[in-house]
């Protein structure tokens, strides 16, 4: 498995709660949901190459 880097993200409470609800609905942890959304945004913007994506996104 690829090594991961940890970092702190500060979110306002409403954003945090909305992300947590979304993660719960998708049966993901909050961390996995944020990573999934960031990866999808990077792909949509053409800033992440296909070989850089994980096969275990969902």
| C-alpha geometry | globular
What are the secondary-structure elements, in order, as H or E? HH
Oligomer: single chain
The count of β-strands is: 0
Helix content: 40-55%
Beta-strand fraction estimate:
under 5%
Number of helix segments?
Answer: 2
Major sheet:
none
Report the C-alpha radius of gyration, rounded.
12 Å
Structural class determined from secondary elements: mainly alpha
- Uncertain parts: none
Q: Quote the distance from N terminus to C terminus.
A: 16 Å
Mean pLDDT: 89
Please give a structural write-up.
The chain is mainly α and 58 residues long. It is built from two helices and no strands. The protein has helices spanning 13-25, 30-44. Helix 1 packs across helix 2 (30-44). The protein is globular, with a radius of gyration of 12 Å. The chain starts with 12 loop residues before the first helix and ends in a 14-residue tail after the last helix. The mean pLDDT is 89.
Summarize the structure.
With 58 residues, the chain is an all-alpha fold.
Please describe the topology of this protein.
Elements: H1 13-25, H2 30-44
């Amino acid at each position: 498995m690829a090594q991961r880097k940890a970092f702190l993200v500060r979110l306002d409470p409403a954003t945090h709660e909305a992300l947590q609800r979304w993660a719960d609905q998708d049966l993901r942890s909050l961390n996995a949901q944020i990573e999934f959304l960031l990866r999808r945004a990077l792909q949509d913007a053409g800033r992440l190459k296909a070989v850089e994506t994980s096969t275990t996104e969902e």
